[in-house]
Write a structure and sequence with these properties.
alpha/beta; Alpha-Beta Plaits; 3 domains; 6-stranded mixed sheet; 5-stranded mixed sheet; 27% helix
Length: 367
């Protein structure tokens, strides 16, 4: 999960990662779901599940107590007592390539998609070190294994160039090249790669273990740029223009929503659409600037209708649950494939028995 949706790309207010359980414990069976519901907890415990991965964090606000007369707290205690670990991937999974918003865009048939709101400038660094040419590959591989070298969907990314290093080894030193107490010039490769700042400690340890020098030189520069490919929302084109009402009706059917609720001008023909899973009314300005005619999201604040009208864009609300549940099955498939490719075993299944919390109620008239 850290390789796909790293926790440092989550919003600062979010609670993601392993929220309950022992990180050293084995996970032979895992379920993926949207949120920790009473039904999910009971079925997971009955099935002997070791790990639950949910999109909505089961622990969001700090706990003030562990009282069992509070249902939400009692579920956490029950899970912990049974050894059931709880893991959340929330806004980091919203932002990740292949995450919630890509899944939503795919379900609605969008092509040529782009990120709507890139992740903020945070969390990235450049690591630079100097390596004897014959050890370049070993050091680079060690850094990649520690989390460096990832740019969007690309892996093992680095730059290297030849140069000449100089040093004076101390009399008691054990230099890899030259003699103790003497000045030395040595051919070296300058190796540069990107890494999350959160992985800097692990990368430095891996560097020192793989590097042949007694004291390898290394610089880490914080960067002011967002990670490539990460961001909230997506905007893309339809393969062919559709009528506005036709598109929204088809989107509601595809997501299992009762019907789309819309505010702002609904275009007669739709070609470009933005999507934000969950609560996305705050992204109207970005969607309009990206040329979208409709912003599809799960829910929005009351006054978003006014902003939609002012911006000349249609805001379509299809349900928080419906716009995020689309990730559950792709999430399980992706994890299963990753583990198979890595030679690891865990039985991972998508739990798709959840339901939207809001339901229509109609009054029955007596005869």
């Amino acid at each position: 999960m850290e390789q796909w949706a790293p926790s440092w790309t989550a919003e600062e207010w979010d609670r993601v990662g392993l929220l309950a359980g022992d990180p050293r414990a084995e996970a032979n069976r895992a379920w993926v779901a949207l949120e920790l519901s009473p039904d999910l907890l009971e079925q997971a415990l009955a099935a002997g599940v070791d790990l639950l991965l949910t999109h909505h964090p089961p622990i969001f606000k700090p706990l003030g107590d562990l009282r069992l007369d509070k249902p939400a707290t009692a579920r956490l205690v029950k899970a912990a007592a049974a050894g059931l670990a709880l893991f959340a991937a929330h806004t980091n999974l919203d932002a990740a390539p292949g995450g919630v918003n890509d899944a939503l865009a795919g379900r609605l048939g969008l092509i040529e998609t782009e990120t709507l709101a890139p992740v903020a400038e945070k969390g990235l660094a450049k690591l630079v070190t100097f390596v004897p040419p014959e050890h370049l590959e070993a050091v680079a591989r060690a850094l990649f294994a520690a989390g460096a070298g990832r740019i969007g969907a690309y892996r093992d990314c680095a730059f290297h160039a030849p140069g000449m290093g100089a040093f004076l080894a101390p009399p008691e030193g054990r230099p890899f090249v030259g003699q103790a107490g003497q000045r030395e010039n040595a051919a070296e490769e300058r190796l540069e790669t990107l890494l999350p700042l959160a992985a800097a400690g692990a990368a430095l340890r891996a560097l020192k273990e793989a590097h042949p020098y007694e004291e390898p030189a290394c610089d880490i520069y914080p960067l002011r740029q967002p990670p490539a490919g990460f961001g909230l929302g997506r905007v893309g084109n339809l393969p062919a223009p559709q009528g506005g009402e036709e598109f929204l009706a088809a989107a509601a059917r595809e997501l299992g929503s009762e019907a789309a609720q819309a505010a702002g001008p609904l275009p007669a023909q739709v070609e470009r659409v933005a999507v934000v899973g969950g609560s996305g009314g705050d992204f109207l300005a970005q969607a309009a600037a990206a040329g979208a005619q409709i912003l599809v999201t799960g829910e929005a604040g009351y006054h978003a209708w006014e902003q939609a009208g002012d911006l000349g864009i249609c805001l379509a609300v299809l349900g928080h649950y419906h716009t995020e549940a689309v990730i559950v099955e792709p999430w399980a498939r992706r994890l299963s494939k990753f583990l198979r490719d890595a030679g690891l075993f865990c039985d991972i299944a998508a739990w798709t028995h959840g339901a939207a919390p809001w339901r229509p109620v109609s009054a029955r008239r007596g005869g």
